[in-house]
Amino acid sequence: MPVLPNLNIVPFISVENMMDLVLSIGVETFLKELSTYIEADFRRWETFDKVPRIASHSREGVIELMPTSDGTLYGFKYVNGHPKNTRSGRQTVTAFGVLSDVDSGYPLLFSEMTILTALRTAATSAVAAKYLAPENADCMAIIGNGAQSEFQAIAFKALVGVRKLRLYDIDPHATERCAHNLQGLGFDIRACASSEEAVEGAHIITTATADKQNATILTDNMVGPGVHINAVGGDCPGKTELHRDILLRSDIFVEYPQQTRIEGEIQQMPADHPVTELWQVIAGLAVGRRSKDQVTLFDSVGFATEDFSALRYVRDQLAATGLYENLDLLADPDEPRDLFGMLLRRQALREQLASR
Amino acid sequence: MPVLPNLNIVPFISVENMMDLVLSIGVETFLKELSTYIEADFRRWETFDKVPRIASHSREGVIELMPTSDGTLYGFKYVNGHPKNTRSGRQTVTAFGVLSDVDSGYPLLFSEMTILTALRTAATSAVAAKYLAPENADCMAIIGNGAQSEFQAIAFKALVGVRKLRLYDIDPHATERCAHNLQGLGFDIRACASSEEAVEGAHIITTATADKQNATILTDNMVGPGVHINAVGGDCPGKTELHRDILLRSDIFVEYPQQTRIEGEIQQMPADHPVTELWQVIAGLAVGRRSKDQVTLFDSVGFATEDFSALRYVRDQLAATGLYENLDLLADPDEPRDLFGMLLRRQALREQLASR
């Protein structure tokens, strides 16, 4: 039997490790590199095992598991969504995830994913916009200036060329903070007093609000011809952001229809409302933007393959950066079938130490 | 906003912590106490959200997620099953799990579960046997003397009163090791040369083999009247241990029929083959053993509530034992919506440190 060292150890990327990883690579470069992984995995969409995420709903929110596999690697994310969490100083969304080796079932990586989810969500939005936004789009409205907003702005700068931002939030402090955080990154930023003001002249409208309810962040008259809508905030049953009339006028692009019909903006529509799968556009099997006046809508809810891509990307950075800890996660008896004997040997060691 | 200290920290029970926890409590006491949690949770079965585990099958094995919730706590386990893993010095089954607060979605505990799964599987088997085994059963055959065998033996000693063990494995070294590991624990142990020899005179037959195939560990003529069969090894599609004729003669008890019909011994039977849910027996809503001559079969595949009970139990030991580490798993910005600002502050800290 070959001797495999440290079979018990799984690399762990803590929150601090993740921050240092992002900062050492640079947020914009990180988003750019991450987007190539996301795009590559969308392109080979058909190699993935796909299921709608497994949701456990409660009064205050939802806890979800999002697994997928490409036959070589298996990944899953745990993520919660609890809009009222901010009242107790907690995050609305927290997440962690695991990447495993399919052939052995052994985890290869355990990682914080609260920060990583924010990055992969923004990167995915920007990948979609690369294919769907009008040509030379450089002005984006962001409605909802919470935890996701800065990441969206930077991803759209890096991948789409957005330079002008029009920010609006029902909480002016959120807008102020977002504008402040984005200072010095090369944006022309305007804080707006209303959604109407924010969308005026915008080529791209990003909605990223967090309330768990059917809200109308955008009404039909606010959406001019040729606009690309990046709807990020509606992501569970009973949580939408767009008026139904917008959906009727838009060409709608989704990640995984089976999941989006449950969770996305299109939960407002009949089950057979036509949508195009984003991966088909990326793979060249379907057309994205057809005309200058077309309204395109990326009805983003987040899908397991994006987390898989993100875990793949950060795993590929580990060797060079060393930004991880070793976690004693897996039982590794000298003899694999002798789990109980491992306890007995530990007992002997304890007794030996105690008698010293 | 109340200041909550250490919102980022999640207690982590490593493999070493788990071994020390089990040893400091004592294996037998641990199994006894754990079984009270398992039994209590079976008794309130109807309060749990239940889904069949989410399996990702591959050529070599399976990776599964097993979530459940009682409305207050949410738990899930990641577990793999890869029979050929032992060839590369790895465990057939490894596992880890998380217990979370439903109201906030925040994880409360992250734990190794390779060892814990072995313990909860044995405790569940013994709980079932308390209700199903013949009166004064004190002799158990264990066919398949791998990682699960010693735990089964000790659980049945603690909960059912088993004192005599009849061990058989196709690998005599496995039997030898099992017998050796159980020395000095008060058993009368016989290593047997065949399954036939092992089951002779046994009141309880435990099958715990690991091959991923439809095997026939027990044939009909080996099962005498009044015997209780504890079938642990058949736990995924295409993996069974008992001849079909035994199922036809037995009263079959299962954890969660929707899952057992896919994974258990009863995958060999029509979808409407009658079974009794174990929780109903424990709750007094269904009869367990009715007569001296009845053959009872616990078709165990392992269910999410058992892992939930196990996580609940080990969590209740943390404060007294201190056997855990603190894991920096959750992003905890000073201002919950300001995830990006957390990165900026980290950047400032890094620059400050670098300039010293």
From TrEMBL, chains A, B:
Pfam (any one): OCD_Mu_crystall
SUPFAM superfamilies in the cross-refs: NAD(P)-binding Rossmann-fold domains (SSF51735)
Keywords associated with the record: NAD
The keyword NAD is assigned to this record: yes
InterPro entries membership: NAD(P)-bd_dom_sf (IPR036291), ODC_Mu_crystall (IPR003462), ODC_N (IPR023401)
Domain of life per record: Bacteria
UniProt record similarity statement: Belongs to the ornithine cyclodeaminase/mu-crystallin family.
Protein known as: Ornithine cyclodeaminase
Organism, scientific name: Xaviernesmea oryzae
Lineage: Bacteria, Pseudomonadati, Pseudomonadota, Alphaproteobacteria, Hyphomicrobiales
